[in-house]
Every structure is written in C-alpha cells, then in structure tokens.
Amino acid sequence: MTPRIEVVGIDCLMVRLFERIEEANMPWVLAASQRLQAAFGAHLRDLVPSYTTLMVHFDLPPADARCLIVQALEGLQPGTENTGCLHEIPVWYHASVGPELPVLARRAGLSEAEVVRLHSERDYPVFALGFAPGFAFMGLVDERLATPRLSTPRKQVAAGSVGIAERQTAAYPAASPGGWNLIGRTPVRLFDRERDGYSLLQPGDRVRFVSVTRQAFLALGGDEEAQE
C-alpha cells in the first residue's frame, strides 16, 4: 500500500490510504494514526481519521510535515490487536421512535423482527466522527438493510435516534435535522461536555446494538418524543 498525500489547506494535509470503504481498513487507519501522532508530537494540532483517510493539521512548514508523514508511514503494517472499546448500546426498535423500521422491512422483504436481528447481531467499527459532535459513522450493515437516505430530510430528529443510510449506521447524539432511515432509539448519552473526550464513541471503537423493551428504554432514561 502506498499512501497518497493531498493538500487540503496551508496547514493541513490529507493522507489517503484506500479508495473504497471496507471494515478491513480500520486496523491500517489506526496504525497510521498512532505513527503520525508519535511523529508530529507537539506540532500536531489535530488528526482526523475517516473511512479511507487521515487529515493531519499541523504547525510546521508544509514541506517538513510532508516529509514527516512519508517517514512515519514507511513500512506501515496494520495492528494485530483491537485497541478500541466495545460498547453495548441498548436500542428500543419500534415504529413510534423508528418510523422507517416497517418501511425498511417491507422494502427488504423481511419482518420487523428480522430487521432488528440483522441490525443487532454484529459489531460495528466506528469509522469516523462528523456531521455533529459525537455523531459516529459505523458500518457496515447487512446488505439487505442497505437503503438510501430520505429524499427529504427531517427538520428535527430526536437525540438517540438510530438510523441507516446506505450500508452505514449511526445514532444521533443530539436533536438535529437529518435524513437517515430511523429504526429505533437509544437512551445512551453519546455526547457529553463533562466526559473526557466529549464523545462516548471514538474511531476504532466497536458498537453492538442490543434490543431492549420499551419499559427498559424508559427506565434507562429514554424519551419517546415523536420525530418531526
């Protein structure tokens, strides 16, 4: 693998490791992230991993930064151990909080229970954070659950809403507009300014969604507020 370095700003370079989104990319992205953090040290302002890239924000002359990146990634190999955390996130899967659950089931020729099983039976790596603070892009969902974003996004999606877009899945950390297909809701607080790092989920972590009853959802502090 030969990383490609792209200019995105006067103090920002993008390291492109892959062209396609694959779960197998993550060990490489994390290994590259660790090497770059060590290489740049105090000169690193920010490092943003994504599905196939790493954005490096630095306070060095661009030519020096480029040289550091090349040196740091020479002979790169993926890590053999998963250093991220595994999070079990409870979800109440129901049409009242996940209005696309029955729609997605009909489209895929599945029952709603089968959709829930397929969505909750695997661990999802966290590829990247973006769109909103604490919003974690995860994947890849079973191909039978893949579905395009809504043609008209909602004006307001409730915090904790769990959705699918193409083969990605995510949970909204806060109320916001959004166009993902909603299939349930979690009571877990995904973004908290009092938490170290703010976001519960970080790139390299894994998430297992756990189906819970409405009673358990409410007992854990869940909100049944309808979507707009």
UniProtKB/TrEMBL annotation:
Record keywords, A-Z: ATP-binding, Hydrolase, Nucleotide-binding
Organism superkingdom: Bacteria
Coiled-coil ranges per UniProt: none
Residue ranges of domain Carboxyltransferase in the record: 3-201
GO molecular function, one term: hydrolase activity
Protein name listed in UniProt: Allophanate hydrolase
Organism: Pseudomonas parafulva
